[in-house]
Amino acid sequence: MIAQDSLSAPDLPFPIFQISQTIRRYLLYDINTVTWLRRTHNILGVFIGSLPQSPQQNVFLGLPLELQPEEAALLLEKGLAFIADDLQIHKKAIQSSPKGLTDYKATARREAFATAKAVVKHKQLKTQEVLQRLNVDPAISSRGKTIDKDEHDESIFNTPQEPSSEPISSGIVLYSSTPTTSYPPMATPSKHSSSPLPEVNASSYALFKHLHASGYFMSPGLRFGCQFSVYPGDPLR
């Protein structure tokens, strides 16, 4: 059973972020808004964000959700949303709190160092486990690596050795995850009185509105050589 809080509507009107002035793309970053639109307004959009667990595949994607121009135009026309200029919002937020940005960068770097140390330690533990299974003395293996390094010190084909228990140097590749929110957290942008409607083809928008009013779900139909893929119900159900 879905919790009652997840069924509540977002604060209206909510922002649709426009990330480019030349190639107009309209994005939603809030999962509650995405779920509410899909459930109550038959708005599907297309997920375009990679998953942290599988960043190199493009079959299963996550936030943000990209809206079709027709979807964005319909939401603005109904007064449910407004267009927010993503670039200008971030510029204004960064300029208004330079100290917060500096502190955030320092914190992120400390976390990256801590993660890098944890990765190195994990590799060392795995190596020790393998050596124990092979009945190899780790001390002998370590001396062998040292001798090998000395013998081939002049080779231009050497690969750098994994750091051991020494402190992480500034030259190591740091491990860090991309945050899903800005820091410091930015306030929800206020509705601008002159938010323009997205530019859409008049005929395709008229078709979209007619099908949407009839209760259909629509996603981009490019892979089928058409304007929209039309479903009588949610295609994920």
Question: What would you note in describing this structure?
Answer:
Helix 2 packs across helix 6. This protein has six helices and seven strands. The strands form two sheets. A five-stranded mixed sheet has the order 3-4-2-1-5. The chain is of the alpha+beta class. Strand 6 and strand 7 form a beta hairpin.
Poorly predicted regions are: 1-6, 146-171
Please give the share of residues in helix: 25-40%
What is the N-to-C order of secondary-structure elements (H for helix, E for strand)? EEHEEHEHHHHEE
Biggest β-sheet: strands ordered side by side in the sheet = 3-4-2-1-5
Distance between the termini: 16 Å
The count of helical stretches stands at 6
Shape: extended
Major sheet size, sense and barrel closure? 5 strands, mixed
Summarize the structure in short.
39% of the residues lie in helices and 13% in strands. The chain has 237 residues and is α+β, with helices and mostly antiparallel strands.
Attribute tags:
6 helices, 13% strand, 237 residues, alpha+beta, disordered N terminus, two-stranded antiparallel sheet
